[in-house]
Amino acid sequence: MDKTESAARRAAAVAAPGYVLDRREAVPRLIGRHEDFLFVGGLAGSAKDLAQLTNDGAHAYLLGGAMGAACMMGLGLALARPDRRVLVLTGDGELLMNLGALATIAVMNPPNLAIVCVDNGHYGETGWQRSHTARGVDLARIAAGAGIRATRTIASEAELEEGARFLRQGNGTCFVLLRVAPTEPPAYRRNLDPASCRERFRAALLGAR
């Protein structure tokens, strides 16, 4: 057992109530058919979630080291391609770096944008410290307070099917807070060459007309 896995297990042992879903099962079930979306993936765990789900597909642009950028990049993409459904998959730590993005997104309110925050209550990238959400900060309520009218919190398997339908609604931006246990994301070795990732995503974007 390496140090990262050991830290994740210790975090899981003291996780706050309500953080029980296995992200490796919940994320694919919530998203469903991944070909329905263009993706922007936040760094760390959510990027690995999407890399595993899409087999590191060209229609997923996955960040590394750009904390707080995912939602605004998703907004720009949704505005540029109103004919495509755009999904931002990010984590609680990444979103906490740029909560003001939710207010801008709410004002613009593109109907083809969905945001999923995979909230495990921990900063998995920096040592599995408890995050603000494990201490009572509710990102779904913050999204609603910012003006995003369609929000959901999903914390049980029974809610995943309805959540998948919710992500595909087209009557305004939607926000889903997916509460998961603080366990390791998929161990997927994704492409970390930013130039090649940019070019393949651009080709997928321009080819999907």
TrEMBL record:
On whether Cell membrane is a keyword of this UniProt record, the answer is: no
Q: Which domain of life is it from?
A: Bacteria
Transmembrane regions = 58-80
Work out whether the entry's keyword set contains Membrane.
Answer: yes
InterPro entries to which the protein is assigned, alphabetical:
THDP-binding, TPP_dependent_decarboxylase, TPP_enzyme_TPP-bd
List the PANTHER family: SULFOPYRUVATE DECARBOXYLASE, SULFOPYRUVATE DECARBOXYLASE SUBUNIT ALPHA
Name by which UniProt lists this protein: Aldehyde dehydrogenase
